[in-house]
Amino acid sequence: MMGKPLAAVVSVGLSKFGRIEGKYGRELFFDAFKEAIDGCPNLETRDIEALYVGQMSEFYEHQGHSGAIAANWTRLLPIPSIRTEGACASSGAAVALGVMSVHSGLCDVVMAGGIEKMTHQPTPFVTEALALASDFPFEQWNGLTFPGLYALMATAHMHEYGTTEEQLALVAVKNHGNAMFNPKAHLPKKITVDDVLSSRIIAWPLKLYDCSLITDGASCVILTKPELAKKYTDTPVYIIGFGQAADTIGLYERASLTSLAATKVASKKAYEMAGVSPKDIDVAEVHDCFTIAEIMAYEDLGFCEKGRGGKLIEDGETNIGGRIPVNTSGGLKAKGHPVGATGAAQICEIYYQLTGQAGKRQVEGAEIGLAHNIGGSGATGVVHILRRGD
Amino acid sequence: MMGKPLAAVVSVGLSKFGRIEGKYGRELFFDAFKEAIDGCPNLETRDIEALYVGQMSEFYEHQGHSGAIAANWTRLLPIPSIRTEGACASSGAAVALGVMSVHSGLCDVVMAGGIEKMTHQPTPFVTEALALASDFPFEQWNGLTFPGLYALMATAHMHEYGTTEEQLALVAVKNHGNAMFNPKAHLPKKITVDDVLSSRIIAWPLKLYDCSLITDGASCVILTKPELAKKYTDTPVYIIGFGQAADTIGLYERASLTSLAATKVASKKAYEMAGVSPKDIDVAEVHDCFTIAEIMAYEDLGFCEKGRGGKLIEDGETNIGGRIPVNTSGGLKAKGHPVGATGAAQICEIYYQLTGQAGKRQVEGAEIGLAHNIGGSGATGVVHILRRGD
Predict the structure, then answer these.
(1) CA of B136 to nearest chain A CA: how many angstroms apart?
(2) Is residue A127 assigned to a domain?
(3) Range(s) of the domain holding residue A377
(4) CATH number for the domain harbouring residue B21
(5) Which residues of B touch A243 (CB under 8 A)?
């Protein structure tokens, strides 16, 4: 039986994703906030009682304390506002805290979102800042970067299951293609498998087109109690399950390199709470920081059997129009990956899909959606399951 | 009427505070965790369902993702674990989230705490990292550091209310003295007003002894639902009220330099929720990052009238044995200020006081305590009010 809603999403907003010059992260957050507020005419900003803001790193803008800054820049002072950090799962976790806070009865309406401004920094600096999500003494110190960590997973997956470079490439082809129908996306582009395979190697088998983008962006989700949702919108989307899990920070401590335990534990909790199974999911946003990550997510979320992720993309089942469309937004791969903003941005896409606002990338008749957000190489995993309102 | 408890503290732990060589922050957190667990024999570690970890900055250890790392190092995997960051109020906010999560009914037992490892870095590096809590474009960029920000508040307070350098110095004398009875404190020391006044000027009127310490440390608080508390301990302490508030990140945007709005808003909420008033508080830990901050806290928390904070310390009312003992632990000033760990460490001290475990610094008969944690120059404020169990 489907679970009782824990919270309702009544509006969402996204800044433009891309290389945004001349704006601070806080200004991008204002853009996302304004879109969310403008989209919810029955909501007064004074109704918002708390704010949860994902931001991965203070390095990019030499700035911490982003919770207060976001409350300041949106003129929501003096409401409580806190930054959450779980690497690239920072704003997935912010949304989970938002859900908990309305479920606690302590707040009626809260906002969760994320911010990251990255593109003004040189790429080596960004690579170093991203590496903060991995273990300092045993990983960073030895020169391991994120493409390297995911390359280790990719080669293990190829070795164990026969996954091919072409199958990885198909993830990029699909997601860049989907992004062509998303006006907020960073890199909408028709590309071919050959384009991916012939792009320069970053950490074999991952090439340039196997990697997600360095992107500026912000995201915002307005949450309320299910019983108050209709006060704010005729088309609420309900959060019916969520799960979060932690795993070892270092890849070297894990039993498997071809699966993320955090995805499995978090999604199991979310499915149980929601009372649904993987086959009930009509549309999903998954954490495709690298193409191999999307393949592994298919398997760990139960969209296919273990080791069959490469086949799933090859058969076109995760395309729009397929059995289980994945990353209709373009994903981290092509919509872009402003790391702290990604998790809440995934919730935005599922909201668009479940309210029929996804334009040319709409999945017809979508009723249940899933968002899957990973921090680092899998030390944090957050999964939300959403249902269209009646 | 006194408020219904929201959550119960059933055990707490602190690492040694000080210059701790040869340990990572995560290892300090393990020390705090072990003390909390050892102090609660009825609790199995598998009872703990979520973890909230305050850490101010990734700069010190070139390490983010501390939520997952803390869960990893305490062997609590795969429970959800997230880092919270609100500058020096990071773990006050972590405790507030812990309270919310047990109050939500989604968790029975959770842990909140904080970590900061700072002393291995050179002082100019630490000063820069601390400055991340202030505004980058308008404050950091112009060379304003935290001693400078609080010096602006101190000179305004001296100008408006006639507060003297001697009164500021008395805060340091009291807190270093209290620290002599706290075996975990960083700098227990008998000092005189003359010692403070003759110490070197950092940012006039603040001298070396007016500033809190750069300290390594970690803190840990175990929280449960009030109705489960007696399962774990005979001496629970109840959280009967809490409040959190945000203010402008920049000092330049504020109506007053002699008061922190975040303290006033957060404490008003906490007092109302708890159903108590300032005169009911038997013992308090307040955020004395600089001596002027303690004087302002007296006033903003309602322990005395506005402008009378200097007089309050002069009259000895905040000494142990006075009307309202403040910072019995030694405070940030002398116990030390591992920034991300401070808020939860304040909760630890109130727990010791309300359970009669504060040794030679015990406030006799203390029944109600207050913890006051500030982020940055006041853009985040968190207040908890605790009551001794029956």
Answers:
(1) 6
(2) no
(3) 7-122+212-388
(4) 3.40.47.10
(5) 80
Q: What is the mean pLDDT of residues A271-296?
A: 98
Closest CB to B72 among A72, A132, A246: A246
Contact flag A136-B63 (C-beta cutoff 8 Å): yes
Half-sphere exposure of A39 (CA within 13 A, CB side): 22
> Which phi and psi angles does B315 have, rounded to 5°?
-80, 0
Chain-chain contact of A246 with B97 (C-beta, under 8 angstroms): no
Picking from A53, A82, A100 by the largest number of B CB atoms within 10 A of its own CB, the best residue to mutate is A82
Active site residue B211: no
Q: Give me B26's structure tokens.
A: 């995560």
For residues A249 and B78, give the distance between their C-alpha atoms in angstroms, rounded to a whole number: 11
Residues of A catalogued as catalytic: 88, 337
- Whether residue B1 is predicted with pLDDT greater than 80 in this model: the reply is no
Q: Is B22 on the interface with A (CB under 8 A)?
A: no
B179 part of a folded domain:
no
Give the SS3 label for residue A353: helix
Q: Which of A85, A138, A259 to mutate to test the interface with B (most CBs of B within 10 A)?
A: A85
Interface test with A, best of B72, B85, B88 (most A CBs within 10 A): B85
Q: Is A134 on the interface with B (CB under 8 A)?
A: yes
* Secondary structure percentages of chain A, helix, strand, coil, to 5: 40, 20, 40
A206 within a domain of the structure (yes/no): no
Whether A56 contacts chain B with CB within 8 A: yes
- Written as six digits, the tokens of B286 are 């307040």
- Residue B178 pLDDT grade (very low, low, confident, very high; cuts 50, 70, 90): very high
Q: Do A57 and B58 touch (CB under 8 A)?
A: yes
Q: How confident is the model at residue A143 (pLDDT cuts 50, 70, 90)?
A: very high
Determine whether the interchain pair B57/A62 forms a contact, defined as Cβ–Cβ distance below 8 Å: no
Both tokens of residue B216? Answer: 């390594």
CA–CA separation, B239 and B196 (whole Å): 36
Q: Mind listing the pLDDT tens digit for each residue in B288-338?
A: 999 999 999 999 999 999 999 999 999 999 999 999 999 999 999 999 999
**Angular region, A22: left φ>0, alpha ψ -120 to 50, beta rest:** left
Decide if B69 contacts B114 (C-beta within 8 A).
Answer: no
Choose the closest CB to A78 out of B57, B63, B246.
B246
Largest CA distance in chain A: 55
Give tens-digit pLDDT for A329-370: 999 999 999 999 999 999 999 999 999 999 999 999 999 999
Q: Are B199 and B333 in contact (CB under 8 A)?
A: no
User: What secondary structure letter does DSSP report for A223?
Assistant: E
Structural domain count of chain A: 1
Q: Which residue of A has its CA nearest to B90?
A: A82
In a domain, B29, yes or no: yes
Catalytic residue among B186, B287, B337, B384: B337
C-beta separation of A247 from B78 below 8 A: yes
How many residues appear in chain B?
Answer: 390
The verdict on a CB contact (< 8 Å) between B86 and A68 is: yes
Judge residue B360's burial from the number of C-beta atoms within 10 Å of its C-beta, 0-12 exposed, 13-18 middle, 19 or more buried: exposed
Between chains, do B24 and A137 touch, taking CB under 8 Å as contact?
Answer: yes
Contact B79 A24 (CB under 8 A): no
Here the tokens at position B66 are 């501390």
SS3 B183: coil
Radius of gyration of chain B (CA): 19
Nearest CA in chain B to A91: B82
How are beta strands A368-375 and A283-285 bridged, if at all? parallel
Say if CB A372 and CB A189 are below 8 A apart: no
Is the interface score ipTM higher than 0.90? yes
Q: How far is CA A359 from the centre of its chain?
A: 20
Q: Report how far apart the first and last C-alpha atoms of chain A are (Å, whole number).
A: 16
